[in-house]
Amino acid sequence: MPRPDETPRRRGQEAVPDRIAAAAAPDPMRDDPAAAPETAVSKTRRKREMLELQELGEALTRLSPARLAALALPERLADAIGLARRLDRREARRRQLQFVGRLMRDVDPTPIAAQLAQWSAAPNAEKARIAAVERWRARLLDQPSSLDELCATSPRADRPRLVALMTRSAEERAHGSPPHAYRELFRELNALLGNDG
């Protein structure tokens, strides 16, 4: 029974409290994560995973043919990647990369991503090693006493040969002659530090 000071409701408003009550009622599927189906993945997460697969496929298009063959991809995926490489029109390439991403769903992307990471890390490690060799060469030429430290860290170092190369390199620098000994010192240090790690 309506109160006298209450405004009359329009038709359909009576159901509002029922809808609110139904929404507030406990839902066993929503409240208990164990009861929810395990296959329920949000649309955002699915889209993110598809974009990651597409980006991985795009990275595969930048590989050399030898490295691509080393991954032993399914033939259909390898053909799609080859076609994506040849396409130069923007929209056609975008659609082909989407297709590559769809084909990537049929393979396990984890070993592919791990191999790509290993290939990209190898040049960085090599660059760091070469930079360390160059630092040692500059240090030996600027501070000849640092040869003792090098020989202590690398027992295989051929001390007399290094001393001779350091002396010849200093003479080359003083006379402005071609840097043969300077380069030979680098090769010697590269071999020494490359094997010692």
Please render the helix and strand layout as text.
Layout: H1 15-24, H2 28-31, H3 43-61, H4 65-70, H5 75-86, H6 90-104, H7 109-142, H8 146-153, H9 159-175, H10 180-196
Word description of this protein:
This protein is an all-alpha fold. Helix content is 72%, strand content 0%. It has helices spanning 15-24, 28-31, 43-61, 65-70, 75-86, 90-104, 109-142, 146-153, 159-175, 180-196. The mean pLDDT is 80.
Spell out the key features of this protein.
Diphtheria Toxin Repressor, domain 2, 0% strand, 10 helices, elongated, mainly alpha
Shape: elongated
CATH topology (fold) name of the domain at 126-196: Diphtheria Toxin Repressor, domain 2
CATH superfamily of the domain at 126-196: PSPTO4464-like domains
- State the helix count: 10
Distance between the termini: 90 Å
Integer-rounded radius of gyration: 34 Å
- Structural class comes to mainly alpha
Total beta strand runs: 0
Average pLDDT number: 80
Uncertain regions spanning at least 5 consecutive residues: none
Which second-level CATH architecture of the domain at 126-196 applies? Orthogonal Bundle
- Tell me about the largest β-sheet: none
Order of helices and strands: HHHHHHHHHH
CATH class descriptor name of the domain at 126-196: Mainly Alpha
Relative helix content = over 70%
Percentage beta strand: under 5%
